[in-house]
Amino acid sequence: MVEAAPRSIRAATALYLAAVLVFVLGPLVVVAGVSFTGGEYIAFPPQGLSLRWYEAILTSSVYVGAAWTSLKLAVVVTISATVLGAGAAIALHRGRLPATSALSALFLSPLVLPSIIFALGLLTLWSSLVGRTSFYALWLGHTVIAVPYVIRTALAVLSTSDKFLEEAARTMGAGPWKAILHVVIPQALPGIAAGAFFAFNISFDEAIVSLFLRSPEITTLPIQIYTQLEFSPDPSIAAVSTLMIGLTVLLIFVIDRVLGIQKVAG
Amino acid sequence: MNRLRNDLLISAPGLLLLVFGFLIPVAGILVLGVRDADGAWTSAHLVRFLTDPFYLGIGWRTIKLSLLITAICVVAGVPLAYIMARGGPRLRLWLIVCITLPLMTSVVVRTFGWMVVLGRGGLVPHALNMLGLANRNYTLMHTETAIVAGMVQVLFPFMVLSILGVVQRIDSRLEEAARVMGCSLVQSLRLVVLPLAVPGIVAGSLLVFTLSASYFITPNLLGGSRLPVLASSIYETATKTLDWQFAAAQSIILLIGVLMLLIPQAKMTRRTHG
Amino acid sequence: MTAAVHLDNVTKSFAGVQIIKGISLSIQKGEFVSLLGPSGCGKTTLLRIIAGLEEATSGSIHIGGTDSTRLPPEQRDIAMVFQSYALLPHLTVLENVMFPLRMRKLGNRAEQRERAEAALKLVQLSHLAQRRPRQLSGGQQQRVAVARAIVSSPQVLLLDEPLSNLDARLRESMQEELIQLHRQTGLTTVFVTHDQEEALSLSDRVVLLNAGLIEQEGIPDELYVAPHSRFAASFMGSTNLLEVHLEPSGDGARALLPAGQSLVLGGAPHKRGKATVMVRQEDVRLAPASAGAAATATLVTRIFLGSRTRYVLDLDGHMIRCLAPADQHFDVGEKVSVLIQPDRIRVLAD
């Protein structure tokens, strides 16, 4: 089919693809570029190359503190989202729960419903029930958002697995819990692992719920960036952002290693 | 047997989290928006939104921008989806990774990128200046154009993946048959592929529209406080003026709008995916 | 002596459909029993009920004298070979074979290892112990599945069409191996298959199922030579079924064919009247028309099978098939004599 396309169309296609990629990836490249500037102000192309802004953020207690908070949060969110999501995915996969499709929809709903509504709801509910928002509020909020991602990747892997393995394990003397431990979880592991990395990435980058639940004691990296963007942007933001982009790219590679991007994107 | 009980046990924590951590907060908002300070039912907040021209303007801007964003995503997305569907697995994979990468970065990071590109002295104003279309101090920041650009970048993959799914299922032999019957490439795309891709386009549009109405960070940073959209208004009302009930009322309006589009979208996707 | 497996009036209904309508069966220790039947007859469901993977709607299942009706599979002393082998992909071959011993807590780790290695030796796969299932061929995976099933010396070994995914030649050699294994281990075996030849060659006893009920059971010879019903007759072997009119004649009877010819039946006296008779294709002997036999037929089709030839003949309006040795040759359109030994024609009870 592609061979049947006239030369002009192929040239137009190449141009179009280039344009799309520039549009989609350009701003990220620009951010990286700005981060290496030697000057005082945000400028692209950068004025001279230097690592001064990286130095600046790595020595800034504000940034380091925010990064630390984000990291701690991401780790606990990964754990909670992975455990809860894996359990839900396994149960959903077996299809024995009542109203499985309704439950599936429910579990995946945070993906489609505007997170701003959820963020506001969490803020109001937490404030009226518990009081001041805190690390735990963020943990809860991030976990809710991350769980659907874990469920999605775990289900994707489970749906391709051999459905007789569990039965075989039962005939070999494994009770229901042992069967899950020895057969179902190893089967789903690539999907669960990929989901875990997704969860980490989502929590680390998350801004919406974090901004609603923010308080002076809790500043995550995205909150810190947002605040600076609102008031006094300087190239240090670019440095932080570039590191965050780097982290995301790294996580994508890891997910590909563990699961294969095809399974996630397909 | 007790297998059902086991399934319930392992999914219970997740379920509890969803119910108490998600459904109840959202339900809480729906209730909060229609109650007054004393706890009685009232539609005052909703009425306030629907009668104040300022807020109606916000609603209108949200709809207008979302329509524009959706339209751009359609026009730019259909060709890309086709190229990805017919272009072979490696190309498809790389393109998927490239267009979803922005989605996986933090919203503040990529919005910052747009601020640099569109702001004073940034690439785009600079280019316009070179072309003689703008003066040296021109900035695209704090314009609706900026909002649209930033949102299209991140919502684009949703549209493309939606159309991609449908186009991949179109038998390429239909196009070959059309070519053999005398159509040019463009004609075969217009007469064969496009009509069959419509379900994917519609589903993608509904999704993109609802998502574009739900984001506030990008419009806030790129549009500024003078160009609020519904989501940024909710944020302002909740965190600056602390009028939670009014914020909740606005959320209800947003949710109604979103559900009106999501429900047909879900039905469509279920039909096309069998 | 307590039966190894005893099913008492087992029924199974699902979504309003009765899959198994009432089956009672006793399997003795060390027996190799095949559950044979067409698809949908309930044989796999019955096997799964014995395994505990499905619950009987009514009736009871006793395994080794214990009432296992309500027991889940892991508490039954069974082992099963699945049609798709179901090897655990994340474990090596040896770990797969050790798995039942681990789960059922039989012996310490060293003993488990020894037993697993012994089982692998029995199926001649010792050299593949450290491989993963995906590195094995279909036939090798199947042998691992069998090793894994015999390693725990279960009361009952259950096999669900384990050879159906193999090609013909591999299937033949695996059948021989299974017979060997059964002799060596002496395990009570229940084998599900839709292939009647397979059932006949492997089993001590064949249970023929039809639409959820036992059609006939007995030793292979019985089912082959003396099927009770039309269904049994046509399912086992390649058979001709003829509608004839019986007339007593001498010690036996004559089966009258439409155009006047007749075949002689021996054996016990038969009633006069309409009946269905069966003749195995290999019992229809042909000779040149000049041989002057009681019945003649016209040859319609000739199908060369290599070691034998199948002929389709028009015998008085009935189409019958015959399996003839390769050295006989007749042409299409030729008139041939049909010779059938009287004791090879059976009247069906139907």
Give the integer mean of the pLDDT values of chain B: 87
How many helical elements of chain B? 12
Write the H/E string of chain B, N to C. Answer: HHHHHHHHHHHH
Largest sheet of chain B: none
Total beta strand runs of chain B: 0
Overall pLDDT confidence of chain A: 88
What structural category arises from helix and sheet content of chain B?
mainly alpha
- Bin the strand percentage of chain A: under 5%
Give the helices and strands of chain A as they follow along the chain: HHHHHHHHHHHH
> Do you know the CATH architecture of the domain at 53-91 and 144-273 in chain B?
Orthogonal Bundle
Strand content of chain B: under 5%
Helix share of residues of chain A?
over 70%
Segments of chain B where pLDDT lies below 50 for 5+ residues?
none
Rg of chain B, alpha carbons: 23 Å
CATH superfamily of chain A: MetI-like
- Which protein chains make the most extensive interface, counting residues with beta carbons within 8 Å of the other chain's beta carbons? A-B, 89 and 91 residues
Keyphrases for this structure?
heterotrimer, A: 266 residues, MetI-like fold, 77% helix, C: 350 residues, alpha+beta, Rossmann fold, OB fold (Dihydrolipoamide Acetyltransferase, E2P), 2 domains, six-stranded mixed beta sheet, 8 helices, 24% helix
What this model shows, in words?
The complex is a heterotrimer of chains A (266), B (274) and C (350). Chain A contains 12 helices and no strands. By secondary structure, chain A is mostly helical. Chain A has helices at residues 7-35, 52-59, 61-94, 100-112, 115-129, 135-158, 164-171, 176-205, 208-212, 221-231, 235-258, 261-265. Chain A has one domain: MetI-like (MetI-like fold, Orthogonal Bundle). The relative contact order of chain A is 0.14. Chain B has 274 residues and is mostly helical. Chain B has a domain at 53-91 and 144-273: Orthogonal Bundle (MetI-like fold). Chain B contains 12 helices and no strands. Chain B has helices at 2-32, 44-51, 53-86, 89-104, 107-118, 123-130, 144-168, 172-180, 185-214, 217-223, 230-239, 244-273. In chain B, helix 3 packs parallel to helix 7, helix 5 packs parallel to helix 10 and helix 7 packs antiparallel against helix 10 (217-223). The longest helix of chain B has 34 residues, at 53-86. Chain B starts with a helix and ends with a helix. The model of chain B has no long low-confidence stretch (mean pLDDT 87). Chain C is of the alpha+beta class. Chain C has 2 domains: 5-226, P-loop containing nucleotide triphosphate hydrolases (Rossmann fold); 238-347, OB fold (Dihydrolipoamide Acetyltransferase, E2P) (Beta Barrel), CATH 2.40.50.140. Chain C has a 6-stranded mixed beta sheet, sandwiched between helices. Chain C has a 5-stranded antiparallel beta sheet with strand order 13-12-11-14-20. Chain C has a 5-stranded antiparallel beta sheet with strand order 15-19-16-17-18, with no helix packed on it. In chain C, strand 17 and strand 18 form a beta hairpin. In chain C, helix 2 packs across helix 3. Classes of the chains: A mainly alpha (266), B mainly alpha (274), C alpha+beta (350). The interface between A and B is large, with 89 and 91 residues.
